[in-house]
Amino acid sequence: MNRLTKRFQTLKKRNEKALIAYLTAGDPSLETSGRLILEMAAAGADVIEIGVPFSDPTADGPIIQQAGKRALEKGANLRNIMELIGALREKTDVPLVLFGYFNPILAFGLEDFAIKAKEAGLDGLLVVDLPQEEAPELRRYTDPAGLAFIPLIAPTSTAKRIAAAARNNRGFIYFISVTGVTGSAQPDPDGLKEDINRIRALTDIPLAVGFGISTPAQASLIAPLADGIVVGSALVEMIGSGEDEQIILAKINGFIREMKEALRVHPFPAARSLV
């Protein structure tokens, strides 16, 4: 069973919601990223998204864009990030999802990427600029390798697109709570409810809400609506503060613990059948 599926099933039994934490690999260095990922896992992050820096990050807001720029300047790339994931897999069983753009994967080689990802122990893949219609080109290699292909669903997504995203899904659906780039606005729980109910009517695949969530209070409000929340820009901003590494690690630990506590003991929505 995929680690992502197992983690969501375990959390449901505990009546908890998943905390999915994001960082940009290589900012401020790959070595520090490794220590941060282990710290996040130890503090209670249920899934960790590892961002691959890219020169044209169209879906990212300024905070993550700057982190990507710093990481590229330090020499981070898909190949050495995959090596980092392989080293981390020996130290933690937290589900790891690669978050990035299609161009670096294409340059790596689709089949070679899938092989290396499986060897490294990667659990999932989220390619923000790869439409569902074009995903089979990559999934012909990544699906047999056991990687969950995580689809992005927006408030404007049609029922047909949502159903297609849920089909053959072994991970979770990432729901973009606001239009725009990462960190650009805060989600409105009242507005989210209608969108999430529309998705729930079509699938019972775990649903995680991301974009704009940065405080325990927000997490607590959104948690009853979904199976998990994604926190990115708030963490990336802490990491990029320029403070001493030990201070950053301590702040990340405290923040993750607070966010995770806000996600405990929330009722799960009733499951729906895929139609």
Low-confidence stretches are 180-184, 271-275
Beta fraction of the residues? 5-15%
Count of beta strands: 9
Helix and strand element order: HEHEHHEHHEHEEHEHEHEHH
Instruction: Supply the number of helical segments.
Output: 12
| Strand order of the biggest β-sheet | 5-4-3-2-1-9-8-7-6
Shape estimate: globular
| Fraction of helical residues | 40-55%
**Arithmetic mean pLDDT:** 90
Structural class call reads alpha/beta
- Termini Cα gap: 24 Å
Largest sheet composition: 9 strands, parallel
Helix-strand layout with pairing:
Layout: H1 3-14, E1 18-24, H2 30-43, E2 47-51, H3 62-73, H4 78-89, E3 96-100, H5 102-108, H6 110-120, E4 124-127, H7 136-142, E5 148-149, E6 152-153, H8 159-166, E7 173-176, H9 189-200, E8 207-210, H10 216-222, E9 228-231, H11 233-239, H12 245-261
Helix pairs in contact: 2-4, 2-12, 4-6, 6-7, 10-12
Can you describe this structure?
Strands 5-4-3-2-1-9-8-7-6 form a 9-stranded parallel sheet. Mean pLDDT is 90; it is low at 180-184 and 271-275. Helix 6 (110-120) crosses helix 7 and helix 10 (216-222) runs parallel beside helix 12 (245-261). Strand 7 (173-176), helix 9 and strand 8 (207-210) form a beta-alpha-beta unit. The chain is built from 12 helices and 9 strands. The protein has 275 residues and is of the alpha/beta class.
